[in-house]
Amino acid sequence: MAFVMAVLSCSCGEKHTHTEHEHEHTEAEEHEHEHEHAAGEIIFKKANAEAIGLTTEKIAPAPFAEVIKTSGQIQAAQGSESVVVATVPGIVTLSSTRFVDGTAVRKGQTILSLASENLSEGDVALRAKNAYETALKEYERMKDLVSDKIVSQKDFEQAKLTYENAKVAYEAVHGKHSTNGVAVTAPINGFLKNILVKEGDYATVGQPLATISQNSKLVLKAEVSEKYYTQLPLIHSAYFKTPYDDQVYQLDKLNGRLLSYGRSSENKSFYVPVLFEFDNKGAVIPGSFVEIYLLGKPLGNVLSVPVTALVEEQGTYWVYIRLDEDCYKKQLVSIGADNGKSVQILSGLKTGDEVVTQGAYQIKLASASNAIPAHTHHH
């Protein structure tokens, strides 16, 4: 049998010959080193995985907890808010401070002024000053006369009372008066909240103008259905998720603690309140409504995956398992408790499986075009 000869030129100028059989043998050896992929496996190159920031995690049994999913509200902690009220009547004149929700203010900072010079009663600050000076003169005059028994002790006491009241009224506005009126200052450091007046409004004495919140401590109030009442003593912490970001906040990382839970439902309600207090280390807005995951009875060693690892398809849940550097497998799983951050896996995974935790959706898109067919395939 004749052999086909291939003549190749090398850089040295010498000629080498190879038979067709030798050439086929070399290719066979190369294919022996290639990886064989089974049916249903998905090819996703390492370079593509790095480009999308794909991450994986080897799962292992770990502590978990039963979860009661509910809703609730973020509230300001007791003592961390102060209401700013009008100390005198007048027309609201806003200062240079941006008088809007969320504006940071310092203790003693002027947030608005109340002008009364154009009112029928006249300028409050000027009237307070005149009343104080008149009462002071009368008090000093009576003090000299009462010792000589020219005036009665009763008249002197009345003059003294009038003077002290005038002094209090004057000191309330002294040093706060300007061309804009009497300044209203912030009683604490914090942030403006619940603005109740606007430029040009008329305010009476004692009228609330705004609330200043320190936001250092916040309260998480969960509304729990009565059917979970027997489980409330087991609740020890909670996670929550706000409507304005995708972040799940964990109370155990915010110095959170359980304050109390209701021993009865609130009036005309089928829900029992559960209260936690925590440090506001993030951008959590008091007053916002949130999704809450109450953590209850501890479970034994549980397999779980991050919520981001799950892909839902028509009511079923799947994850992607990494088999090697470029190869992935789609795996059906059944899920249990969900705490907003991680999900309990009841079946479908085993210890040591390397699950895609970020980038599962991109793997799903890739699987639509390059899944390995049912027969063994070399590539």
Give a description of the structure.
- The structure is a single chain.
- The protein has five helices and 28 strands.
- It is elongated, with a radius of gyration of 38 Å.
- α3 (124-147) packs antiparallel against α4 (153-173).
- The chain has helices spanning 20-32, 46-52, 124-147, 153-173, 360-370, and strands spanning 5-9, 15-19, 36-37, 41-43, 55-58, 62-76, 81-85, 90-94, 104-105, 110-115, 177-178, 181-185, 190-193, 202-203, 208-213, 217-225, 237-241, 248-250, 257-261, 271-279, 289-302, 304-306, 311-313, 316-324, 327-338, 342-347, 354-358, 377-378.
- The chain starts with a strand and ends with a strand.
- It is of the alpha+beta class and 379 residues long.
Quick structural summary:
This protein is α+β, with helices and mostly antiparallel strands.
Quickly list its features.
379 residues; alpha+beta; seven-stranded antiparallel beta sheet; six-stranded antiparallel beta sheet; 5 helices; 41% strand; disordered N terminus; disordered C terminus
The largest sheet has its strands arranged as 18-17-21-6-16-20-19
Total strands:
28
Quick one: overall form? elongated
Helix content: 10-25%
The residue-averaged pLDDT reads: 80
Q: Roughly what fraction of the amino acids lie in strands?
A: 35-45%
Summarize the biggest pleated sheet: 7 strands, antiparallel
